[in-house]
Specification:
single chain, mainly alpha, 3% strand, elongated
């Protein structure tokens, strides 16, 4: 399950070593970065998703304040690609959530134990729920902008909802795990 974990001066130790406490095993499980292809895909796709959201938000803000016309070819595609990237990121994250070893912490620690542990709470509760809320806001922004006829209104809805979603995403990224 845990291959070649290095501690201290570089020697290898098994997670089933008698000197490891339950707390140590929990930390190993929470900080395990070797989660395979789904974790890697989720991490690298996040860069693309954040880049697309930044581009879409800046494009919408500039379009709103500069009173530019809403160009279906350019502005629509930028917003749509940001929406698509966030939904793909959500699907990858959903798969990762249920297949990762961290999910077993719900049964091992219980709800109270997960909520008491800062890192477990971040990875199992705060990060997923905040990101779902962010994706809902981005989706609402996309849906609302389609119903508006004028360019300023379209840019305004995209700017508000995409920027709010971006801020929520950035607020709950587990930076020490990701970078």
């Amino acid at each position: 399950m845990y291959k070649n974990l290095t501690f201290g001066w570089g020697f290898f130790i098994s997670p089933y070593h008698p000197s490891l406490s339950q707390k140590s095993l929990l930390l190993i499980k929470l900080k395990n970065k070797d989660m395979g292809i789904v974790q890697t895909l989720h991490s690298y796709w996040a860069y693309l998703t954040l880049a697309m959201l930044v581009i879409a938000a800046i494009n919408a803000i500039m379009g709103y304040f500069n009173s530019k016309p809403y160009i279906m070819g350019k502005d629509l595609r930028i917003s749509l690609f940001a929406l698509i990237f966030t939904h793909i990121q959500f699907l990858i994250g959903l798969v990762l959530y249920f297949v990762s070893e961290r999910f077993s912490l719900w049964s091992e620690l219980g709800v109270g134990g997960v909520m008491k542990n800062e890192l477990a709470r971040l990875l199992l509760v705060e990060h997923p729920l905040t990101n779902i809320l962010a994706i809902i806001l981005i989706t609402i922004g996309w849906s609302k902008h389609k119903k508006i006829e004028n360019a300023k209104g379209k840019f305004g809805k995209i700017a508000f909802f995409y920027t709010l979603g971006l801020v929520l995403l950035l607020a709950r990224i587990p930076w020490d795990q990701w970078l």
